[in-house]
Amino acid sequence: MSTLTQQPQTSLDGDDAILAELRRLVESAARDAVEPERVRATVLFTDIVGSTERAVSLGDRRWARLLAIHHGLVRAQLARFGGREVDTAGDGFFAAFDTPDSAVHCARAIADSVRQIGIEIRAGLHAGECQVVDGKPAGITVHTGARVARAARAGEVLVSGTVRDLLPGSGIEFECRGCARLRGLPEDVRLFAASRLRADRRPSA
After folding, report:
1. What average pLDDT does this structure show over 172-189?
2. CA-based nearest residue to 54, from 114, 113, 125, 124
3. Can you give the pTM of this predicted structure?
4. Nearest Cα residue to 152 out of 186, 100, 107
5. What pLDDT, in 10s, does the model give residues 13-60?
């Protein structure tokens, strides 16, 4: 007579305990998660028009000297108007300002000052809420500002409609450049060139 081996009954108590612990850990992590810091800022991007061609024509040594002068002029205007240098890559600057008024005036001052050494820049500005990542502004506002700068002409300070709308009665005159679909952005962006500034503008304290 054969003997049937009775299999031990499987208990789910252990699995249930593991699932309960995992659920507790997930819920605890969700409660403890810290929202990333966010700030409102106006971001400015600049770069030199035709920098590669200029570097080739001057040669490495002379181009490096001219670039150092350019950097010094840009940083002097950032200090004058209360801008914070966020990053520098090659011949381009990324800066942030507390107010759009200071940012636009700084951009125009940069364009005018570097023109004296034979350099034309393009500049782009956008304003909005930024995430703060490793102490630096980041997010859609920053990406938009960079795209606006790419759309600017030589010597032009181009701003988004958001910046322009924040500056009624500022004494800054804007020329409409229409709406543009900037690469990577889901909606068209209204663009304006900051054409004239009032003469009595004073730098930020």
Report:
1. 84
2. 114
3. 0.77
4. 107
5. 566 677 777 777 777 665 555 566 888 999 999 999 999 999 999 999
